[in-house]
Amino acid sequence: MKYAAKTIIAAIVCLAIASPAIYAADAKPGKGVTVKPARATWNTGFFQEAIVRKALVELGYDVEAPKDLQNPIFYKSLAMGDVDYWTNGWFPMHNSQLPKNFYDDAEKVGYVVKAGGLQGYLVSKKEVEKFDIKSLNDFKRKEVKKAFDANGDGKADLTACPPGWGCETVIAHHMEVYDLKDHINPVKASYEAGMASTLGRYKSGEPIFFYTWAPNWTIFKLKPAEDVMWINVPEIIPKDTQKDFADKMTVSGVEGAVSDPIKLGFVVNDIQIVANKKFLAKNPAAKKFFELFKLELIDINAQNTKMNEGEKSEKDIERHANAWIKDNQDKWNEWLDAARKAAQ
What does each C-alpha distance from 164 to 32, 74, 188, 290 come to in angstroms? Predict the structure, then answer.
């Protein structure tokens, strides 16, 4: 009996050495599964999409190239199961763009950046000081409108948001409730092209007036308190979709603001992954990674600045993602290990 017991124990030890997969998490739990990601139409959100896609590939998934979709189209496609997820949810700003009964079929997962979505209006600091600009109401003054009128239509030109973006509807709301339609002209061209033109005007010494958000390269190129200043909306008048979050529209401690606190007129948003429920239920490894994945605003801003300086091809973005992973290898490995264990 004593020798038989030793033989059994030896056999078990040999089996464990020969078959580590029996005891360890599957390194490729997503093998055989095709994933259909989407991403936003604003390129400042491409970075996090690339990183998450690389994680899913590491987990064995066959990940397709992302589809670039406008917000309402994405959320409808996600609910229908035509795409599986994206990393570009901004909440509560995107609430008004969700289809009816959206959360029956989809859900928000984790926080890419919690309370990271700061938005508002900025004006060149020189003009803020020259005209004593404190809020959007100051653009009703003739001398201010004239200074910011680039096309000669008698209105101040605002570099705004393209159609289909959540911020477009908020800006339209502001033009209405503050009676600004005859005073401000929101320019709705491509945001990237619009801000390139804005930056060019600033470098030429001309006044600038634009909407932006964080994370974004704009506030690295045009630094609040040095080059530009955040200005107020006249008063907080939220849209219906903002009413539950009106207390998040006035913010304290914003660097480069004309007042403290400042009435931004936009809700501070959480940036989150949004995914199809059926996809999450069938893929616990992916869900766990989504739950754990987080980025620092400074990392996104730094990458966005590189893109603005010309490094914006798909190869460039992939290289930026790889560099971030290398710089955060321990955290990356922990997230992947947790994802693999979740699939057991």
Answer: 35, 11, 10, 26
The answer to whether 28 and 60 are in contact (CB under 8 A) is yes
Q: Within a domain: residue 10?
A: no
SS (H, E, C) 235-274: CCCCCHHHHHHHHHCEECCCCCECCCCEECCCCCEEEEEE
Q: What tens digit of pLDDT does each residue of 82-117 get? A: 999 999 999 988 998 999 999 999 999 999 998 778
Does 180 lie in the same domain as 93?
A: no
> Residue 212 CA to chain centroid, in angstroms?
12
Distance between alpha carbon 126 and the CA centroid of its chain, in Å? 30
Nearest CA to 92 out of 245, 247, 216 is that of 245
> CB of 273 within 8 A of CB of 86?
yes
Q: Do 230 and 121 touch, CB atoms closer than 8 A? A: yes
pLDDT at residue 334 tops 90:
yes
Q: Clarify whether residues 153 and 256 are in a common domain.
A: yes
Residues 6+ apart with CB under 8 A from 74: 38, 40, 83, 86
Reference 179, options 234, 243, 241; nearest CA is: 234
Contact between residue 159 and residue 209 where contact means Cβ atoms under 8 Å apart: yes
Report cis status (omega within 30 of 0) of the bond before 66: no
The beta strand positions in the chain, using DSSP E, are 34-35, 38-39, 62-63, 67-68, 85-91, 106-124, 156-159, 184-187, 209-214, 228-231, 250-251, 262-263, 269-276
**In terms of Cα–Cα distance, which of 98, 116, 118, 117 is closest to 108?**
98
**Beta strands at 34-35 and 62-63: parallel, antiparallel or unpaired:** parallel
Q: What is the pTM of this model?
A: 0.71
Range of 283's domain? 25-115+270-342
